[in-house]
Structure formats: C-alpha cells, structure tokens
Amino acid sequence: MLRRRSLVLAVTFIPFLWFGNSAPAQDDFPTAAELLQQGVQQLEAGDADAARETLGSVDRMQLSRDDRQLLDQALRDVETGQVTVSSTPTQEQTADEQPEPVEEAQPAPPTPEQLLAQADEDALASDEARQRQALDAYVELMNNEEASLDVRSLAAARHAQLRRKLNADLTAARRSLDMAAQDIREGRIADGQRKLDDLDASGVDLTWFDRHRMDALRAEIASVEVAAAEQPTPDMPAPIVDQPQTETPSNDLIQQARKILSQEKFAEGQQAQREGQLALAARLYEEAIVLDPSNVEAQQALPAVTAALASDQSQQQALSRDAEYRRLRVEQAIAGYDQNINEANSAAASLNYAAALDAVGRAQQELDRNRTWIPPSQLKDLRQEATDMQAALLAQRARHEAELIAQTEAKRQREQELDRLRELETLRKQVDELLIRAHELNASQNYDEALKVVDQAQFIQPNSIPAELLRSIIVNNRVLVKSRTYDRRRREAMLNLSLEARERMIPSSEPMVYPEDWPQITQRRLDNLPGGGDTEATRETLEQIRKQISVTFDQNTLESVIDALVLQTGANFFVNWPALEAIGIDRDSLVSLNLTNVSAERVLALVLQQLSTDFDPLTFSVIDGVVNISTELDLRSQSVIRVYDIRDLLVQIPNFTGAPDFDLAQALESADGGSSVFSEGDEENDDDEQLREEAIEDIITLVQESVGNADEWLNLESTVQELNGQLIIRTSYENHRQAAKLLDDIREARSSQITVEARLMLVNEDFLEDIGIDLDFRINNLGSNYTSLSVAQDSATVAQPVGSDITPSGFVPSRTLGDIFTPISGTNPAISPTGFASTSRALEMGVAYIDDLEVNLLVRATQSHRRSITLTAPHVTFANGQRAYIYVARQVSFISDLDVVSDAAALDPTVDVFSTGVILDVEGTISADRRYVTLTLRPSLSSLIDIRQIEFVGTAQPNTNNNDDNNNDILVSGTQELPELEVTQIRATVSIPDRGTLLVGGQRLIGETEIESGVPVLSKIPVIKRLFSNTSTVKDERTLLVLVKPTIIILNEEEELRFPGLLQDPDLFNEGRGQGF
Predict the structure, then answer these.
(1) What is the DSSP letter of 1016?
(2) Which numeric CATH code is attached to 406-483?
(3) In the prediction, which pLDDT does 9 show?
(4) What angle separates helix 208-229 from helix 149-185, to the nearest 10 degrees?
(5) What's residue 21's pLDDT?
(6) Residue (of 526, 538, 608, 529) closest to 575 by Cα position
(7) Distance (Å, rounded) from C-alpha 910 to C-alpha 916?
(8) How confident is the model over 193-241, as pLDDT tens digits?
(9) Cα–Cα dist 112/141, whole Å
(10) Which of 359, 725, 740, 1006 fits as disulfide partner to 647, beta carbons 3.0 to 4.6 Å?
(11) Rounded mean pLDDT of 588-601?
(12) Which residues contact 761 (CB under 8 A, 6 or more apart)?
C-alpha cells in the first residue's frame, strides 16, 4: 500500500514538474548528432582526448546510417592519430551552422586487410559497443567489392561467430531472468534477488523489454518485502489471496533488498534527469525514498527536480514534451528499421542474400525493441513488411542458387569436355616422351628401366604399335647383353675360385688369425648387441668418473664436494636431496677427505660411505649418463628389466677321454668284435638336458648371491629367470651393471684357450770306417816231388764291419769277399746315383799276377757318416681345463689268424687292423695369474718295423658225396702276418710357462763296434803290417726328444694386441683407419 500511494503522489506531480523543466532540459542535453559534430571538430582541432570522450558518449541508435559511418571513421582516426573526416553538417544542423571546410590532404583510405584487422581488434575487446562496431565492420567488408575473396570469407565467418557470441550472452541473460522470475513466483525472494544482481553485474546489454521486465521483478520483490514489513506480528502471517505459500524472509534481508532497490531507482532517476526526463526522474526519486527513507541522495535530488518541474507554466507543455519524446523514439525506431531494410536491399542487389536476410533480422529485432513506442497498427504493418521481404529474399536466394547450380553444371560439362580433349593430348605427348626416353635408355643399355618406361607407355595407350615394336627390340638387346655379361662373370668366377684355392694353400704359423675386416665386424656386432649393456652416454660418464683426481676436503659441505667432483670430472651429477634429508643428511653435511691420484668414482664412494647410516646407506648409480646420488633403498626402487644372452655359458665343455692306443695286443684282442677309433661313444651324454638345467640353476644362484643384497632377491624386489637361454633380470641400474660384469667375467674366464705343440724329434747319427787288405800267393813249380805251395790269409773277412742293434738297415755292407781273378778295377759307390745309403763299399781294388808264382792282392776301403732328423709335431687347441687329443695315424690291415674250414678244405683268415702314427692326448689348465700352464701329457708314437710272414700247412677232410678222393685228407696252406711295431709313449704332468718349451722326455741310444784282425807277428811289423792286418769301426747314435710348447690364447688380449683400441671405441677405430662400413 505504501508503494502504491507513493506512485500516485509521483503521478500527481509529474505534469507540474515536467512543464517547469522542459526548456532547460533541451538546452542541457545535446542530441547525438550534435555530439558527433562536436567530437569531429575537436578531432580536427587536434584535441584527441576530448574527441575520444565526446565521441564515446554518442548514442549510435539516434544517428542515421551516414552519421554512424562518420562516427566509426572518427573513432578510427582517434585511435590511429589521423584525420580523415570533416565536420559536415548532420541532419540536425542548419545551413548557417555549418563550419568552414578544412582543406587538408586526405590520406589513403584503409585497405580491406587493415579494416579486417581493426574489426578483429574490436571483436576481441570486452566492450560490447566495440563488438557491435566489429559486426558493422564485418558487414561492410562482406559487401566490399574491392576486398579479396579470402577477406570477405573471413569477415563472413567472424561475423557469424561474433553474432553467435553476443546472442549467446543475451540468451543466457534471458534464461537467468526466467529463473529469477521462477524463484520470485515460488517465494524464493533471496535467490531471485541474487540472480537479478548477478545479471546486472554481468554487463550484458539487455533490450528495453528485458530491462522493463527486470524492473517489474524488482518492484514485485519490493512489494513482497513491504507486505512482509506491514504484518502485525511474525507469529500471525497475513494470508495472501491467490498467491502460493512463500517463506517469510527475515527483517534484515528485507531491509537490505529495499536499500538495493532504492539505490537502483535513484540511479535510474539520475539517468532520466541527465536525459531531460524530469518527470520520470522525480517519480524514480520518490520511489527510491519510499523504498528506503534513509536514502539521503534521493532526498537531496528530489527537491531540485521538483523545483525544475514547478518552473514549468503549463501542463500542456509537459504533455507535449512527452509526446515529442515518444515521437522521437518512434522516428528513431523507424529510422533504424529503414536503415536495416535499406541494407537488406543493397545486399540483395549485390546478391549477398545472407547479409540481406541478416539485415532483415536486425530490422525485426529493431521493431521488437521498440514495440512499446510504435503504434500497434504501424508495428503490425512494419512486421508484415519485414516478413514479406524475408520471404521474398528467401525465394530470390533459392532462384539465384538454382541459376547458379544450372550455370555451374553447364560450365562443369564444358570444362569436362575440354579436360577430356586436353587429357587426350596430354596422354599422346606423354606416350611420345616415354618412347623417346625408352630409346635413350636402350641406347645406354639400361634395358630394365627402358622396359619399365615402355610399360608405362603401354599402360597409357595399350594399343600403341610403336611401343610394342620398341619392346621387342629392347628385349632382344637385353638377352644379347646379358648373355655376354654371364659369360664374362663365369670367367671371372673361375679366376676368383682359382685365387681362393691358392689362398687356402697359404700355411699359417699363428695359433689364431683374425680376418682382415674384423674391425668392421666388431663395430656392426657391438652396435647391434642386445641385452644389458650400458648406453653410450652411460659408458662415457663411467669413463669420466674413473679418471684419477686429487682432492682435499676439510670440513667441506656435501654440496660443495659434489660441485668439486662435477668440476674435475665434467660428468653430470644429480643428488636426490629429499631422500637424503629423510635420513638426516642435507646440503650442509660436512665431509673431510684427503686423497691423491684416486679415481673420482672411489672418492665419491668414500664420501658417501663417510655420511652413510646403518639403516639406509648412501650410494650412487650411473643412469643414462647421469650420476644419481641417493639412498640405497631409493636407487633400488628404480628397477628396469633387461635380457642377457647366456647360451654361450650353457655350452658344456666335454673331456675327450677316448683317445686310441697303439697297443698291438689290444688290437689283436678286439679282432673278433672290432671297434673304430672314430667312435664317439664317450662324447655322447644322455644327461645333456639335465646338465643344462643344472648350469642354469648355478648361474641364477651365482647372480643372486653376487649381485646386490640378498634381501632384494628374497623380497622379490629383484627377480631373475631363464627363458630359452636368455636370462631375464629385473633389478636396479647398478645391479644390472654388476650382473653384466659378472657374466662378462665368466665369459672371459671361459674364453681362455690353450694351444699345445708337441715335437717328437728323432735324431740318428751313424759312422763307418772299414780298411782291409788281403794278400795271397802260391808257388806252383817246386819239383815233381812237391805240390804247389799256397800262402793265404782271411783277415779281411774276419774284420768285416758288423752293426749294432740300432744300426740302420743297409748301412753296413753285407757282401762277402771271394777270390777275384779279374783285371784291376776301381769303383766309388759313394758317388753313384743310388745314394748314400747304398750297401756297396766305397772303394774296392784287386790285382792278380799269374805265373809259376801266383799273387792275388785285394784292397777294400770304406768310410761313411750319416745324420738324419725326423720331426713329428702335432698341434691341438682346447679350452682351459679340457682334455683333448689329436690322432694322426695310418691304419694297416693284416692277417692275424687262419682258421681251417674242414668242410670246404679252405682257410678262413682273420683280418685285423693296427695303426702307426702319432697321438697327442693332453689335458691343460691355465694358472690363476695366466702365466703358466699345467699339462697332463699322454703322447704316443708308433712306427712299423716289419711285417713277418709265416707259412702254415694243414690238412682238411672235405665232406663230399663222391668217392673220387677216397676221403683222403687235403693239404691246405696259408700265410699269417705278424707286424712288428716300435712304440714310444709318455705319461706325465708338468707345468710350463706360456709360450715356453719343455723337454718332457726322450731316449738316447749309442752303439759302437770295432774289429781288428791280422796275421800274428807280421801284423805287428812296421810298414808291412798293413799287408797282413784289417780293421773296421762302426759307431751309431740315436736320440729321441719329446718337446712340448703351450700357448695361452686369451681372446680379448689377442684382439687388443692386433687391433689396439678397437674394443674401447670401434667407431673411432674405424674412422681413424678410414674403414667405416
């Protein structure tokens, strides 16, 4: 009731107040056109700040289309500092009010790209007015024929986006307004008031209808609050007829709402007063005072407005002023509507139907915003006009689109025909070019590429006769050339094969020879090495921290110690300070250490050991090239999975214990069953799989016991398992490094090999000296009473040289001497072609004189010396700790036994085999310092002396049915062979230095025979004793030496000796030699 009485009082004073203040209002508030003209004049005068303020207060809705364009240009000039507008008179100005034109050089108008950039800047601004300006600028760019298609497309797209944004804000504001109305209807006054306040704070530019609706809702809230305040008691609420049951708000909330609404009414009154609407301002001030009697501002403003209204002399003038205001609002609305309709017509004329429909939509929105001012009949007509125009535009657009489609289709068909003709011409040219290219390739003997080019030509033109002819020519040429090429390659292959055969004939004295391309092979294999190897960055960091440094730390902080190590090594360090601080170690922990020429790795270990605690010691690990320092538990938690190939460690190294023996008795015993020396029954092992499993278990156990802490494996923080010869380990980085080193150490120990060379040397030295004279004579004519007198000696026969048991066969002459009655002759068999080992004497000379006195003289002289060396040197290479043998022999078959077959009257021979040659059976172990080799030697040497043949004769009684032989026994005979072997064997265990030689064993035999014979007394007489004496001397010496030379082969050492630096950096090694791959 209080609000209603206040409104009635305000209405009563409106005519008087409006009439009294109508004239001053007209003078105090200039129109929008006047403000525009004033701002332009300020801009031309160079006062940019004043022009910006004046132009910013201009209401665009009260301007015509030309004035709005003038306003936009003036605002752009204010921002850019240029003057491109002039103060031309507006519709509100008279002719005598026009300012004098300013003659200035007009700058070049902005380009469409610049206008688009300015519009984008306005669109991104938070001010909605600038966003509206951006909308207009986008429309002008869309209709600008000078703008490029890209600029117009961008303007259209951004115009649509900005409109959606603005409409989205307005839609959201209206939705909030609906929710506030719903809260007020359902009695949630506080929620409704809060939503209205939030809507005011959002800054959304609402339409007049929406703003009027907000005022109504606020008035409804105020009425509810007033009604609640007039209730007699809180316990007896007054019933509200035809209203839903609402909750009664508290007095504080009501008072707060009334004050807020009173302030809003006061602000609206001030706005109305500035616009010259004094009656409306007085009414709003009164409403503000009614809502909040303590509103001092409203109480102070109301008397001034009332006094202004009281000065009016006529209520008719006030009414006329209100009518004039309504007329101006209607004209303004109609002007805005007409402007949009004109824009729609212009857009339709330029066939921009989207912009035209958009302009019609804006015209309809203009009508909706001003429907309270426009008369209903006129509003209806204008709406119908806009609707009709919209329908006409839609129809025109449809017809235009249909025409465009038809034109596009016709143009497409014409273009298709032209494209077809052009394509045929292009294909013909392509075929010609391809055939020319094929000719060139054929001339250069590149037949495969030529055929590919011909195939392309035939694919383009399948029935091309020139292409088919050219194909046949190319095929024939290719067959001819390839035939010649194959013949040449065959000859080259035969030559290469011959060269390879000659290369294979080159002997090698080295125990191990690397291929010439071993550095390249090493680089390829190490680069592709899988498994748990460190990365290149990690290896470089490890090399850095293994440098020798000297440090002196005297109560230095841990942080400074780490910085010193970084400076001296150049490596990257990372310290997990939170983990260290958790166990009581920080950056300021003190360290004291004084070391000289110690690796940085050892220095860091000692520093961390000095600061470690028993619960969780400090440690470090190199991970991806960075030295990580933290607690053991922290680094242990950083586990990764890596795979290690251990198949080479699972290979069982057998001991070859089945070396054959040169025992002839054993050969005779095995005659019945027989066995081959090539049998490998001792090498076969049915338990290979079991041994492999045991090896895997041993390796896994070794890893768990040697790598990291035992608790890690027991608690399953680290795991290890085997799969197909691959060891899969999940553990920390440092444990992986230890596991890799452990496996490498095992491999290095297994990679040691031993090469044993045994030299069985037989040295024979023989000496023979034989000098003999035989003088015989006989006297025939001693008279009839006497027979002939003969004097003969045989000392030469007695002094015949005799060899010892070790004298080689044929070395001592065995020919007997007889009477020689031949002319004098002399020979020297020593220089005969038969050689030194001939059985003839060196010199024999005989002379005879025949008469009554017969004299026979025979002279014999031989002196010989023979020295021979026979070397048998078997080699064998085997793994460290293994037993192996080499067997080089010649097998000879012989008849060892004869069995009589009685039924067949025949002999059944038993054939056996014996072997002669050499066997080197050896087992070796390298000492721990890799300087000595302990060998267990079993060398054997066998040679054939002779095979004696023994004839056997036996009888057999055949079992036959006829009686021709009267069942008599039949004699059968056969030969049995008895071989005679010379066997040398040694069994010994010795220690020999690497590459040293040891005389393991041997034998030395010496034999000497000296014979002297002659005639007693005569053989002692000087001078003539040579005629009656003979001497012979035979000396033999035989020496057998068994020498052994072991050589230790350590693969890494051999590789480093032949290729220094290869294992450290294969890439750098190959680059230095210029042999990269």
Answers:
(1) T
(2) 1.20.58
(3) 30
(4) 20
(5) 36
(6) 608
(7) 20
(8) 888 887 777 767 666 556 767 877 888 787 776 665 555 444 434 333 3
(9) 7
(10) 725
(11) 90
(12) 869, 870, 871, 872, 1039, 1040, 1041, 1042, 1043
Which DSSP state fits 510? S
Which residues make Cβ contacts (< 8 Å) with residue 991, sequence separation at least 6? 927, 932, 933, 934, 935
Sign of CA dihedral 214, 177, 207, 393: negative
Q: Mean pLDDT, to the nearest integer, of 245-269?
A: 69
**Closest among 990, 1058, 943, 504 to 756, alpha carbons compared:** 990
On the CB side of 148, how many CA atoms lie within 13 Å of its CA? 7
pLDDT in tens, 947-958: 888 887 767 666
The answer to whether residue 249 scores a pLDDT higher than 60 is no
Pull the structure tokens for residue 83: 């003057």
Percentage of residues in the chain having pLDDT higher than 70: 76
Return all residues near 632 (Cβ < 8 A) that are at least 6 apart. 616, 617, 618, 619
**What topology is assigned to 535-638 in CATH?**
Phage tail protein beta-alpha-beta fold (3.55.50)
Helices of type H across 570-642:
577-582, 600-611, 632-637
- How far is the C-alpha of 324 from the C-alpha of 313, rounded, in Å? 18
Q: For residue 709, give both structure tokens.
A: 């802490």
Q: What is the pTM of this model?
A: 0.49
| Secondary-structure breakdown of the chain: helix, strand, coil percentages, each rounded to the nearest 5 | 50, 25, 30
> What are the distances in angstroms from CA 226 to CA 214, 247, 283, 635, 979?
18, 14, 18, 75, 147
- Count CA within 13 A, CB hemisphere, residue 74: 34
Contact residues for 74 (Cβ-Cβ < 8 A; gap 6+): 36, 39, 40, 43, 51, 55, 85
Query: Max alpha carbon distance in the chain (Å)?
Result: 227
Residue 1008 structure tokens: 């000497």
Dist. CA 403–CA 412, nearest whole Å: 14
DSSP labels, 625-648: TEEEEEEHHHHHH-EEEEEEE-TT
Q: Give pLDDT, residue 603.
A: 92
Enumerate the H helices of 678-814 as residue ranges.
688-706, 710-714, 733-750, 795-798
How far is 939 from 682, CA to CA, in rounded Å?
Answer: 20
CA gap 222, 259 in Å, rounded: 10
Q: Which two tokens stand for residue 51?
A: 């022009």
Cα-Cα-Cα-Cα dihedral sign, residues 733, 738, 739, 744: positive
Query: At residue 123, what is the residue type?
Result: A
Confidence of residue 1077 (pLDDT cuts 50, 70, 90): very low
Amino acid sitting at position 488 = R
Tokens 């129109």 label which residue? 31
What confidence score (pLDDT) does residue 111 get? Answer: 84
Query: Same topology for domains 406-483 and 535-638, yes or no?
Result: no
Domain range summary for the chain, segments of one domain joined by +: 32-80, 112-222, 258-306, 331-374+385-394, 406-483, 535-638, 640-652+711-749
The pLDDT of residue 881 is above 70: yes
Exposure of 867 by Cβ count < 10 A (0-12 exposed, 13-18 middle, 19+ buried)?
exposed
**Spatial CB neighbours of 743, under 8 Å, sequence gap ≥ 6:** 644, 646, 649, 727
Coil vs helix vs strand at 985: strand
Separation between Cα atoms, residue 870 and residue 518, nearest integer Å: 39
Secondary structure of residue 1064 in the 3-state scheme:
coil
CB-CB contact of 227 with 238 (8 Å) = yes
Contact 815, 804 (CB under 8 A): no
C-alpha distances (whole Å) from 1021 to each of 858, 1018, 1027, 1028 are 20, 5, 10, 9
The letter for the amino acid at 885 is Y
Radius of gyration of the chain (CA): 65
Q: Which pLDDT band holds residue 1044 (cuts at 50, 70, 90)?
A: very high
464-493 pLDDT tens trace = 888 899 999 999 999 999 899 899 999 999
